[in-house]
From TrEMBL:
Pro residues bias: start-end ranges: 12-30
Organism: Streptomyces alfalfae
Name of this chain's protein: Uncharacterized protein
Disordered, as annotated region: 1-32, 50-69
Organism taxonomic ancestry: Bacteria, Bacillati, Actinomycetota, Actinomycetes, Kitasatosporales
Superkingdom of this protein's organism: Bacteria
Length: 407
């Protein structure tokens, strides 16, 4: 039987913290900026070092043509009395600069972050612009990839489905996203404090997928994709890569570590972007289907509130939908109960009590179905929780009406 994955709406990543045009609202406080970090960010974003007093400061100019005459004097350390003044002048100049990279550097200073970069090689439109659909595809694919990284950071699996999606989506709340000029490049800033596991796992998983694709194209074997799961690869990530590459002449993803936080254990200080081409799509799609098909079901013991009931006749088995409170990291599951268990679920629903049930969480449908459901029992809760459940019942009275009706 074919899988029909149902994806929850993705919480959008936070936008760039300031408008795409106009001056930066307020430059960082010089006393909170490490000169070495500022220098590393300038070099990362292509600024050119033009000399300066050795051991004291360096002069930097922007990479963009016509950079408005911007020139920064950046101290190399805090060992000299004029360090604070030089830093303050450099930060004000960055805040006033019209160079796009100046804004990227200020983001890196304001929120110490690992940077994830995406590129899509798509045909240029007039004046170098990309079409609206091309930019939307870039943002959508990047969002999918971030979610896949967040899922893999929590647990490695060939297919996550609905599992862990709420926690993974919540992990994206702190991610900042820069503008996508031309619709061909996008940068996400993943705060080190909250998001480094996401960035590390995504980087390792992409490398593993690249190696698995190379192996498949060379030998025809899919075994390398199975081993890539341990690095964080899976259905969600391969689907994100397909979305990124489709309709392009090629696509690349690179991760650059926050200069002030150091390089994560097991990662290279500087790594080339991971590249994919349209010729990789067949292997990626085959791997995605393989992950979807082969992820096993999981035995669970779920506690949840009954929110919907239905059966086709006054007697016999019926279908129950439960909002999961504990036992599985999914929002809701459906199950078919025999007549006795169905009546227990109805009674628990009427008095505002959750139920506890055992079964197997099936991958078919995105881990939203419990098969072999048994051992249904009401669960006693305190008065506050019971009142909350009863209020939820009253707000969703149509569910109760369905329990009394027939198909």
């Amino acid at each position: 039987m074919m899988h029909r994955p149902h994806e929850d709406p993705l919480a959008p990543a936070r936008p760039h913290p300031v408008p795409d045009a106009g001056p930066w609202p307020e430059p960082p406080v010089p006393g909170q900026v490490d000169p070495a970090v500022l220098g590393a960010l300038l070099a990362r974003h292509g600024w050119r070092r033009r000399g300066g007093a050795p051991g004291r400061y360096a002069r930097w100019t922007p990479p963009e043509p016509g950079g408005g005459g911007t020139s920064l004097l950046v101290p190399e350390s805090r060992a000299f009395p004029d360090c604070e003044d030089l830093l303050g002048e450099a930060l004000v100049a960055l805040a006033r600069s019209a160079c796009p990279t100046a804004r990227d550097i200020l983001v890196g200073l304001a929120v110490p972050s690992d940077e994830i970069h995406w590129w899509r090689d798509v045909p240029e439109g007039p004046a170098g612009a990309a079409t609206w659909p091309a930019e939307e595809r870039l943002r959508s694919a990047a969002r999918q990839m971030l979610l896949a990284g967040a899922l893999a950071a929590r647990e490695r699996a060939g297919y996550h489905g609905a599992r862990r999606r709420r926690a993974a989506a919540a992990a994206l709340e702190t991610v900042l996203v820069g503008p996508a000029p031309g619709g061909r490049r996008l940068t996400a800033y993943v705060p080190v404090e909250a998001g480094r596991p996401l960035a590390v796992r995504l980087h390792q998983a992409l490398c593993a997928v690249r190696e698995a694709v190379d192996y498949q194209r060379a030998t025809g074997g899919m075994d390398a994709f199975d081993g890539a799961v341990a690095a964080g690869a899976g259905h969600e990530l391969t689907e994100a890569v397909v979305a990124l590459v489709h309709g392009t002449e090629g696509a690349r993803v690179a991760v650059e570590w926050a200069p002030g936080a150091g390089v994560p254990e097991g990662c290279a200080a500087s790594a080339e972007p991971v590249e994919f081409s349209p010729g990789d799509l067949a292997a990626l799609r085959a791997a995605s289907a393989r992950y979807l098909r082969d992820e096993p079901s999981a035995p669970v013991r779920i506690t949840g509130a009954v929110v919907r009931m239905r059966r086709s006749s006054p007697r016999g088995p019926g279908t129950v939908r439960v909002r999961v409170l504990a036992g599985a990291d999914v929002p809701q599951v459906r199950m078919v109960l025999d007549e006795e268990s169905y009546l227990v679920a109805v009674q628990a629903h009427l008095v505002g009590l959750p139920i506890r049930v055992r079964g197997r969480l099936e991958s078919r449908g995105g881990f939203r179905r419990l098969t072999g459901a048994n051992g249904v029992t009401p669960v006693q809760v305190d008065e506050a929780e019971r009142d909350r459940l009863m209020k939820s019942l009253q707000e969703n009275i149509d569910f109760f009406e369905e329990a009394c009706g027939t198909d």
